[in-house]
What we know:
alpha/beta; globular; 11 helices; 266 residues; two-stranded antiparallel ribbon; 2-enoyl-CoA Hydratase, Chain A, domain 1; 14 strands
Amino acid sequence: MKIENGYSQAVASYFIAGRPLAMLDAAAxxxxxxxxxxxxxxxxxxxxxxxxxxxxxxxxxxxVAVLNVVGPIFRYANLMTRYFGLQTLExxxxxxxxxxxEKRAERLVMVFDSPGGQATGISEMAEMIKKSKKPVxxxxxxxxxxxxxxxxxxxxxxxxxxxAELGSIGAILGVRTDREDGVVKLISSQSPLKQADPGTESGxxxxxxxxxxxxxxxxxxxxxxRKVSVETVLNEFGRGGIRMxxxxxxxxxxxxxxxxxxxxxx
Length: 266
């Protein structure tokens, strides 16, 4: 069964629009465009691959377990995350838990190269990392932005390559409007903010409140994880921007510049 392009636009909306993101804006836009550009979906072919949804993402280097966190991050694994090869917290948490029970693993290196993703579940995953029974090092190979940095900040140490990019601390929220599709919606008068309209002042204020509340949780978690004040995160950790390598270390966003092989060797 194939479903035409209108479905792919609906999928794009499900993944991103209306859901708070802790993700680089450019990455979110690029992914929306990619999902929406798919002309049709062969759902039967995708379903046939359902047994391949979960493949352990952990390799052993002697007594060191290496877990890769690569690409956009989403909450749950499903046909669409499989189709686009997206990272999911469902699989990451499963792999992380497996390392906790792996007798050969004395420590864990999480290798990050991600622009972030959906905010849902990120705080819980960060808490899981913080409470690890085994030492966890976050190694940023390319990028740990937004949700990815949120998780990395929970590791015992953050070690980065010279060109690693860190930060983008904050949240974004994209909302589709129905102004041009002829759809008329009636919302109960008792619940005017049930579907806040960004085109109105009250609607925009409600959506701003929602995204600010999420960003505050993010900021407070990073401050606690990095053992600095909330004011330090607000004023010195990029203010939503990106910092690279040694600069990130000097600001306290990371601990050391090194290479992956040196980190594995310990």
